């Protein structure tokens, strides 16, 4: 614990001369970022953000609420006034003297306020901290204000937003201050159980006991640019490890790269960002998507409706760089999408995107692998191959969807999970396995669509769903055709033969019952007309969600488990190549899967080779 390092001592940078007053008025001040002189009134008009360098000056609790809430919507929540000095603490002055001085200087009872209000018309409970009051330190009074705000949010089923600014736990209250971390954390746990959205807004600085409790337990973490958050302060760490830390250490930008922060939002964008999030934060009573007017043909379920096609040609078509990516589809079919970032652990994987938005007005969570159209984008997105942090981000967003009762849509286009050294060090296999188990019991509708390449375990990790669909030109396979060719044929040039043997195209996978339906693509493929491809995807998703959303949680989970339970179970008389029957159902098709695996290329295989099927 680093309680001794708290109370503002963790801040290496002074909060700035402009920081300690709520409003600058007609005076001149010195910017805490670039040392430029700023005229007070102009600074206030700019929400106390420096026009030259973008430095976000601290705000008072009242100033923050004024910026955040709809005008006239604030109603303060009564909190029992805690006036204790549990230890009879004296340093150079008695603690009660310090409290009196802080109250006189700020007009506040302690370092936090809890209020009701609305943000862009959405009701919220907001708890906001004020750094001027003893460095925003967490003592019994702040813990009580936060907990009371959380309890009101729970009772009224209203989202809870917190704005933190704190040096850490309040030393003068000793272990009583420490216990506030436990008290506030369990209050957030109750909001999780009740399915109520929580959002944390990190302002500079947020350290110690506040960082290690309610500031980082929220569903969505938003930070102001440059805001620093951490458990231990920079100086304590530098003294301990005897190294100089990088300049951006513990800043919002550093934290987003390391998977802690979802969104960095400049102050002027905070209200619209929150408005978007609040609008998708829960499933409404009317939250069942309408069936499209003309549903016929939106999902092909009969093998006869799909032309015979060469599997290798499908592989090449599925890999075309012009095909719409997950972000393209999100852009074309969702409203008010908010991307969520990071695994809250180590990193934010750019090969996997996730977030909340609305499909035809209905809130949904969308998760998908992201490739790209250019060499730069592909490199930035790691060629669409997620790392373990990608799968952990996906799991985090799926849990959030389950908490809020939102359907999950996954869009899959990946050659596979990233095969790399770091990925193994961070337990890629565990991340994939845990996703499979999580999806098996997720108590909300899940629809998966393979839009391009469905590469092995890295694809299945997002495809344990109630409905599994494929775009017409997509492929889905246990291993890449090239990988299979080099292992079993000892010749990568045998990839076309391997693709055919693996039966990777949509027609074959529909026959095997791996997918429930195929989404038709425009003439020439999805890349020939991305808008038409997106509209076909939207129609198919609407049909699936209209079917699944009315089902209760037990029915959903039971049917999903049954769907996957039956793969590989032999069915009497089944044969992979027997017919083009139009009446094939997933259950009898699943039986055929067993027979299909007999079709092996005839060459000597070691037991090792026979079991090697998925090295990615
Ligand atoms: Zn500046």
UniProtKB/TrEMBL annotation:
InterPro entries linked: AcCoA_carboxyl_beta, Acetyl_CoA_COase_a_su, Acetyl_CoA_COase_Trfase_b_su, ClpP/crotonase-like_dom_sf, COA_CT_C, COA_CT_N
GO molecular function: transferase activity
Cofactor: Zn(2+)
Binding site for Zn(2+): 31, 34, 50, 53
Pathway: Lipid metabolism; malonyl-CoA biosynthesis; malonyl-CoA from acetyl-CoA: step 1/1
UniProt biased composition (Basic and acidic residues): 600-616
Zinc finger region(s), C4-type: 31-53
Listed EC numbers: 2.1.3.15
Domain CoA carboxyltransferase N-terminal: 27-296
Residue ranges annotated for the CoA carboxyltransferase C-terminal domain, each copy included: 298-547
Annotated NCBIfam families: accA, AccA_sub, accD
Complexes and interactors: Acetyl-CoA carboxylase is a heterohexamer composed of biotin carboxyl carrier protein (AccB), biotin carboxylase (AccC) and two subunits each of ACCase subunit alpha (AccA) and ACCase subunit beta (AccD). Acetyl-CoA carboxylase is a heterotetramer composed of biotin carboxyl carrier protein (AccB), biotin carboxylase (AccC) and two subunits of ACCase subunit beta/alpha.
Family: Belongs to the AccD/PCCB family. In the C-terminal section; belongs to the AccA family.
Protein name in the entry: Multifunctional fusion protein
């Amino acid at each position: 614990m680093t309680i001794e390092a708290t109370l503002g001592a963790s801040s290496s940078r002074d909060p700035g001369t402009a920081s300690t007053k709520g409003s600058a008025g007609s005076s001149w001040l010195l910017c805490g970022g670039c040392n430029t002189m700023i005229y007070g009134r102009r600074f206030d008009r700019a929400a106390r953000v420096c026009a030259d360098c973008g430095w976000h000056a601290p705000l008072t609790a009242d100033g923050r609420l004024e910026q955040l809430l709809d005008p006239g919507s604030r109603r303060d929540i009564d909190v029992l006034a805690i006036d204790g000095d549990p230890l009879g603490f004296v340093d150079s002055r008695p603690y009660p003297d310090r409290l009196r001085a802080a109250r006189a200087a700020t007009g506040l009872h302690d370092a936090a306020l809890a209020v009701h209000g609305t943000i862009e018309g959405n009701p919220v409970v907001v708890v906001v901290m004020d750094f001027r009051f003893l460095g925003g330190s967490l003592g019994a009074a702040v813990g009580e204000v936060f907990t009371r705000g959380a309890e009101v949010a729970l009772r009224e089923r209203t989202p809870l937003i917190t704005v933190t600014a704190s040096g850490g736990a309040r030393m003068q209250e000793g272990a009583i201050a420490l216990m506030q971390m436990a008290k506030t954390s369990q209050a957030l746990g109750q909001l999780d159980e009740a399915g109520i959205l929580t959002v944390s807004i990190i302002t500079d600085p947020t350290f110690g006991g506040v960082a290690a409790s309610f500031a980082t337990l929220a569903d969505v973490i938003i930070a102001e640019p440059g805001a620093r958050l951490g458990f231990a302060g920079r100086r304590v760490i530098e003294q301990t490890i005897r190294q100089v830390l990088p300049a951006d250490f513990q800043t919002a930008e550093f934290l987003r790269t390391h998977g802690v922060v979802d969104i960095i939002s400049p102050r002027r964008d905070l209200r619209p960002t929150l408005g978007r999030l609040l609008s998708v934060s829960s499933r409404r009573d009317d939250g069942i998507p309408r069936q499209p007017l003309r549903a016929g043909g939106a999902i092909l379920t009969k093998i006869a409706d799909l032309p015979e096609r060469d599997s290798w040609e499908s592989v090449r078509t599925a890999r075309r760089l012009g095909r719409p990516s997950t972000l393209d589809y999100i852009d074309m079919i969702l409203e008010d999408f908010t991307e969520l970032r990071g695994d809250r652990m180590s990193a934010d994987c750019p090969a996997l995107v996730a977030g909340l938005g609305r499909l035809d007005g209905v809130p949904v969570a969308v998760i998908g692998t992201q490739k790209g159209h250019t060499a730069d984008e592909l490199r930035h997105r790691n060629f669409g191959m997620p790392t373990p942090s990608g799968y952990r981000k996906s799991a985090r967003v799926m849990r959030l969807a389950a908490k809020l009762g939102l359907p999950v849509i996954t869009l899959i286009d990946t050659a596979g999970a990233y095969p790399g050294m770091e990925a193994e060090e961070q337990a890629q296999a565990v991340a994939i396995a845990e996703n499979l188990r999580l999806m098996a019991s997720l108590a909300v509708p899940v629809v998966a669509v393979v839009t391009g390449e469905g590469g092995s375990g890295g694809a299945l990790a997002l495809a344990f769903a109630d409905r599994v669909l494929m775009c017409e030109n997509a492929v889905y396979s246990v291993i890449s055709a090239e990988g299979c060719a080099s292992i079993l044929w000892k010749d990568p040039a045998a990839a076309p033969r391997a693709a055919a043997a693996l039966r990777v195209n949509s027609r074959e996978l529909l026959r095997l019952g791996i997918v429930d339906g195929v989404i038709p693509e425009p003439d020439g493929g999805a890349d020939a007309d991305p808008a038409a491809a997106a509209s076909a995807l939207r129609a198919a998703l609407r049909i699936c969600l209209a079917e699944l959303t009315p089902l209760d949680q037990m029915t959903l989970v039971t049917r999903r488990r049954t769907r996957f339970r039956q793969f590989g179970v032999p069915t009497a008389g089944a044969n992979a190549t027997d017919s083009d029957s139009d009446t094939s159902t997933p259950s009898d098709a699943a039986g055929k899967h067993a027979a299909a695996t007999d079709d092996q290329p005839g060459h000597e295989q070691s037991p090792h080779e026979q079991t090697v099927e998925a090295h990615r």
